[in-house]
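Worked Example 4.2. Read the sequence first, then its structure tokens.
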Amino acid sequence: MSIHMMLAAAYLPREVINQTQKAVLMKIADSADDQTRLARPGLERMMAWAGVGEKSTINVVTELVGDGWVERVSAGRVGRRAEYKVFPYGVPPIPTTEELIERRHAAQRAPKNPRLARPGKRRKPSPPALTQQDVAARKARAAAEAKAGLPEGNPAGEGGRVPDGEPGRFPQGNRAGSPGETPSFPSHSSVLPTPPTPTADAAGEPGMAEGDQVARGCPKHPRPVGNCRGCGTNPRAGREQARRDAVAGEHGAQQRWLREFLAEQERRVADRNPDALARAQQRTRDLARMGRERSSNSRRT
């Protein structure tokens, strides 16, 4: 049993070894000799210390060997335990209480997710304003920070401060062809008092003559409108109505062809056998009369 090596394994930081690996390493160190650092803990006892299964324990030992905490001297076989050497590259020192406190503070200062951490130190948030004097002092500090002057610095040969108002010239001088005063740039369209709507020019401008209006609205009306839905129609409804008209026209053409075909068949039968046509017509009239009489009898009853 080696208490010193077991304590050295117990104080390893969690950044380099997890809990399961630490438990298995402590068991191997507990079974090691103080002089040779050789140990034969046995698979069953390592499983009991770590609280995991056989395959997990074997994987943990393999990880310890790969990380350099343990060196496998001889492999285990039936009737003989495997032999390990603990800390083959040297036993790590046991940290003091001050080192443990500093380690804890460093872990608290470290970001939770280093990949998403900010590159620089975050600025401390300003305390909330408690009274009206705090608000006034904060405004005064903001006004003092916003000093009047040009971003490139004040022109040489003048006072340290630029008077309030727009400067008469830039420090690097006005551009060739520009007036002596400060040039102005056109404002953005979003600051206009009444920005134009997306369909403002659909029916033309209000001040334009009627002949100059651009026909961009519904083509079904002599005077175009801003939106085709303003008159109750839209292009989709027009296409659907055109499709329905085409279907109705095709159906009417088929019905006319069928009536002409039946009339032609009737003329052929009349030409070949007039008696059969007369009997068929008489049978049709008899069936119609029988249907009318049956309907009248049913109403009486």
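Now turn to a second chain, presented in exactly the same format:
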Amino acid sequence: MTTDIYRRVEADPAYQQLTQRRGRFALTLSFITLLSYYAFMALVAFAPQSLHATIFEGGTLTIGVPMGVTLILGSWLLTGWYVRKANTEFDQLTQSLVERHQ
């Protein structure tokens, strides 16, 4: 009996739309995160002198530190965006699918 329910849900266009939207959104956020990290690593590897500049005259804090912090915080924000969207929009679509196939 349970395989019959799985087949019906998988055949439902709303389920296919949900998985497609969720997958596309996760892939987009993953691409943004990976691109940011790899761009930063490429900058460190191929142009390290660009990160040596200090923020303030006579200071010791270089431009690379806030860039790294921004990268990490940006990843956290993207994760928060995914969690928020998953807990609102995607969960509502999932709940409507569950109610329709009970």
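Notes for the reader: The chain has a mean pLDDT of 92. The longest helix spans residues 64-100.
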